[in-house]
């Protein structure tokens, strides 16, 4: 909404003939020249940047990683708009998302997380990811904590 106001103010001040009238600001609705897909664009960009870096064989050698995103494991910091979409697209590109860290908790599963189920869990409970069932279960054999960050009290 606010971006529409800025665009409108610019066009009132400079006129619609100005080549920058619609291009003066990002995040506008599609009806004012915004771009469809804006919601997921930054998370997708994170994945494309990572995928591109991993295509640079010499750079991968230099930092000690194997090329290609397919088969890599990923932990995502933050699970808002950018983090969710990054996790979603990492999964689509063949990586396995094994952890999500948020300000109020974290979840980890070395076998991979169900990203859509985690999103649904956080949307319906409003709670931290650490309450998500899709994490590594504690058993008598496995007494390791599954949280990467302890919840604030």
Automatic annotation (TrEMBL):
<comment type="similarity">
    <text>Belongs to the Glu/Leu/Phe/Val dehydrogenases family.</text>
</comment>
<feature type="region of interest" description="Disordered">
    <location>
        <begin position="126"/>
        <end position="153"/>
    </location>
</feature>
<dbReference type="GO" id="GO:0006538">
    <property type="term" value="P:L-glutamate catabolic process"/>
</dbReference>
<feature type="domain" description="Glutamate/phenylalanine/leucine/valine/L-tryptophan dehydrogenase C-terminal">
    <location>
        <begin position="33"/>
        <end position="134"/>
    </location>
</feature>
<keyword id="KW-0560">Oxidoreductase</keyword>
<dbReference type="GO" id="GO:0005739">
    <property type="term" value="C:mitochondrion"/>
</dbReference>
<dbReference type="InterPro" id="IPR006095">
    <property type="entry name" value="Glu/Leu/Phe/Val/Trp_DH"/>
</dbReference>
<protein>
    <recommendedName>
        <fullName>glutamate dehydrogenase [NAD(P)(+)]</fullName>
        <ecNumber>1.4.1.3</ecNumber>
    </recommendedName>
</protein>
<dbReference type="InterPro" id="IPR006096">
    <property type="entry name" value="Glu/Leu/Phe/Val/Trp_DH_C"/>
</dbReference>
<dbReference type="GO" id="GO:0004352">
    <property type="term" value="F:glutamate dehydrogenase (NAD+) activity"/>
</dbReference>
<feature type="compositionally biased region" description="Basic residues">
    <location>
        <begin position="134"/>
        <end position="153"/>
    </location>
</feature>
<dbReference type="InterPro" id="IPR036291">
    <property type="entry name" value="NAD(P)-bd_dom_sf"/>
</dbReference>
<dbReference type="Pfam" id="PF00208">
    <property type="entry name" value="ELFV_dehydrog"/>
</dbReference>
